[in-house]
Amino acid sequence: MRQIAKIALVGFATLALAACETDNLDSFNAAQSASPSGSAFDNALYGGYSQLASEEQNPYGDYGSDVTARDQFSGRALAAANGDTVLPEMVSARMLPPGEVDGANDVRRRLVAALDAGGRAKAPNSAARAQVMFDCWLEQLEENYQPADIARCRQGLNDALAEVDEALRPPPPPPPPPAPAQAEPFLIFFDLDSATITADSAEIIRRAADVARASGAASIEVVGHTDTSGSNAHNDALSLSRAAAVRDALVANGVMT
Hints:
Structural class: mainly alpha
Number of helices: 9
Largest sheet: none
Helix content: 55-70%
Distance between the termini: 130 Å
Number of strands: 0
């Protein structure tokens, strides 16, 4: 009887220990089968956290699951799938090595600033990946025994955050308008005391008309001049006659009405 009783007690203890080690996969399974229907950012956030949860469920294939990390990421995946606001994890929620705390807080402030500046809308996939990789980085820093994973999460964070920063960069200002075309002067010469257009002057007027048409000139200014050999009244009249002659020649070339 004693022997039988002893065996029975040992069996009871074994069953009790097995019950304590039972892994509840409800949160993980719910996260893996969720159907997100929120914003592009929420959906990308769900996908990222679901992937992290899957990695923690069987991170090395032949090692056991990191149940705590798996369930944390599963919970965040479910919240994102439900459209809840999910912020980057607080640094104070993790027990990081002392030398990492200030740097992690700086990175979180930069990340939150980029998200709040419109990163979620302008670059939803990159913004979500930046947040997921930040949380991954904190989790790996807290464990602090897998340098390759710490570096992988930090690099993913850096790359995604750079993409968000680029999306938020204001577009370059438009180029300045072209400078207004400078009026090209054409000098028309007349014979002494004459307002008659010479053959050479007619060629210059034709070229001036071509330039005016090509440039779409809105106006053409014609100014007549004389020398000072005559009286003021004579010179004024001659100047007006010369200007009128040039105007008529331009009209004949089809550029003035």
